[in-house]
Amino acid sequence: MATIMYKVKPADPDDPGFAVAFGRTRHRLPMDFDRIPVPGIVHIILKLLNLQDLGIAEKLAWEYAFKFDGVNCSLAHQKFGLRLYVDSSQMPSVEDAENLRESLTKFLESAQRSLERRQLRQFADEQIRQGRMTIRNQYRQLRDVYEYFQEGASLAFAGQGRMLSELPNGGRRFGVDTTEGFYNTVAMVSAYFSMLEHTLVLLLPFRGFDPSEAALKDFIGSRWGNKFRQVFAVDTDSSAKKHFDALYRIAEEYRNTYGHGGFDRHGSSFLFHMQHVGALPAVLSDIREKPYFSFMPLDLDDFSQVKDALDAVDEWITTDVAPLAMRWVQSGMDVYYDEGFRAVAESALESSETFDSFMSYSSSIVDQDANMDW
Fold first, then answer.
1. If we measure between CA atoms, which residue out of 267, 260, 296, 53 comes closest to residue 173?
2. Closest by Cα among 123, 143, 145, 142 to 133
3. pTM for the predicted model, two decimal places
4. What is the mean pLDDT of residues 51-80?
5. 313 SS3 class
6. What's the rounded Cα separation, in Å, for the pair 334 and 61?
7. Where are the chain's structural domains?
8. 3-state DSSP call for residue 212?
9. Which helix (H) or strand (E) covers residue 66, if one does?
10. What pLDDT is attached to residue 49?
11. 119-168 pLDDT, tens per residue?
12. How far is it, in rounded angstroms, from Cα 314 to Cα 285?
């Protein structure tokens, strides 16, 4: 690391830094987030250079003072990002300070690539294997996508969609409402399963998951059905089996078919040739049960049935089978998989009051870290 960062040298022992030092003239420059996206990586690099961490302060997580090409500088992780401070008494020109930032950024880019390739990648894999990791909670965003297309389908079937009857180059579309409703329903189903899979991953620490018995990466990479079966007792719980079967049917008819180029595994889009007869569907008379049989693959009744089935799954998970865990998921807070979090979460699930206290405390810690209120 010292070889890559050879222009970076320790600051004087009594250097107070710049971020919270009063009366010290300096240039304050933001570091490029696209090039240095993870302040924690910079933290490790500077620590490996045996530079002194000046500690935390209000709205400040850490600051390292150093000399770069002989100029007093510091890097500070503050509330609104990573900031470079350059001593303006040594370097009065803003342009020169910006050039120094560019040079330092190139050094840091090289150092972070080396660190990730040689050390962090293997370490990260081991941490993940042991469940010492965090999953960013994207439930609300994924739910918004699902609800957006659901509303689009509802409006379209009600004749309030945005698709025009007139074509741009002349002519008219037929069945505009049904066509637009179909488009939105297919997108709605795809969005729902994306949200469902994310939710199942977030529920794991609250459902007895143990990373020593099952790899989290394998679970995340598995199909939605396998995830559902591992989180809920499909084989022994009749309600779980009922909702699983409903989801399976919807996935087969709409998600899998239109997510794989319009082909389903039953071959209902295939036609075989017979002399003197013509082309016949590969699934023969069973095609009436496939979405290809109708002029438009889906109508208002189909949409309503799909929506009702998905609503029922949501209600079952949120109200019956995992009501407390879903409070956490819906709160937007990230989820942790380490032994400590899982143990506390299991204890908190004993009552609604205990779980509310657990969430309140966790939320306060998250807010404190985000705002750097130490």
1. 296
2. 123
3. 0.78
4. 93
5. helix
6. 20
7. 8-129, 137-337
8. coil
9. strand 60-68
10. 93
11. 788 888 788 777 778 899 999 999 999 999 999 999 999 999 888 777 77
12. 34
